[in-house]
Amino acid sequence: MGNANVSNVTIRPEEAAHFAALARDWWNPKGQMASLHQVNPVRLEFARAAVDAHWNTDRDGVKPLAGRSALDIGCGAGLLCEPLARLGAEVTGVDAAAENVAVASTHAAAMGLDIRYMTGEVGGLDIGTFDLVTCVEVIEHVADKRAFLSDVVARLAPGGLLVMSTPNRTAASRLLLVGAAEAVGYVPKGTHHWSDFITPDELAELLGELGLEMVERRGIAWRPGKGLHLSDDESLNYILSARRAD
Question: 54 in helix, strand or coil?
Fold first, then answer.
């Protein structure tokens, strides 16, 4: 599922418009964005483990990101920003759709969370660098993936950590994430364009060209009785952590 922020050289207006139209329903766990609510805990499980490993923080601690800054690129209505703030981070969320940012800001205020939200393309905003950069379900919505990743990597502070997730481009994802999921209403129609999906090897190569090395990668899979979970099966979706190469 997508959070629609893209760089100024890759933006597709129809992508931002698609998610902007869904903004008011974003926080409804049983609404059109229900799939995001189901996958969010899985992403957070991976991100928390990546943070603990990267900074050697206590895996039982409640504020492992205390004193650190975090940027969520393509933040949507803030589903990832809010838990990152609760983990202690000073959080900035950026999204191309003003409607998403408005909903995110209102919801964070209601939750008593101090999160800075900004509308725009990450490459065009003077926001500095961050210890943690997250970008989940975004890169599949951009055309020029290398240009977009260049903007993403530019926001990573020295010693920082990047976490990304995206659908894989496989026969299984074409059938299930695009065909079946939209047919039954699991994701809104028009959310995914299979030809824009990127494989793990392709993404690793692009990150390498930009000076990053992949630290860990896991699949996000689904099975009856367990639902969505981290897995060695990357055929539908995967999530990774990366850092600057030594």
Answer: helix
pLDDT at residue number 63: 97
Work out the angle at residue 136's Cα, subtended by the Cα atoms of residues 82 and 227, and round it to the nearest 5 degrees: 85
DSSP code at position 23: G
CB-CB contact of 131 with 69 (8 Å): yes
User: How far is Cα 52 from Cα 38, in angstroms, rounded to an integer?
Assistant: 23
Residue 22 in this model has a pLDDT that exceeds 70: no
Contact between 97 and 77 under an 8 Å Cβ cutoff? The reply is no
C-alpha to C-alpha distances, 136 to 2, 122, 212, 216, 246, nearest whole angstrom: 7, 14, 17, 15, 25
CA 132/CA 243 separation, integer angstroms: 10
Question: DSSP label at 17?
Answer: H
Residue 50, H or E segment? helix 34-55
**Mean pLDDT computed over 172-187:** 59
Q: Domains (ranges, CATH) in the chain?
A: 13-244 (3.40.50.150)
Helix (H) or strand (E) holding 145: helix 145-154
Q: Where are the beta strands (DSSP E) in 74-122?
A: 90-95, 116-119
Among residues 221, 101, 200, 207, the alpha carbon closest in space to that of 161 is found at: 207
Is a pLDDT exceeding 70 seen at residue 131? yes
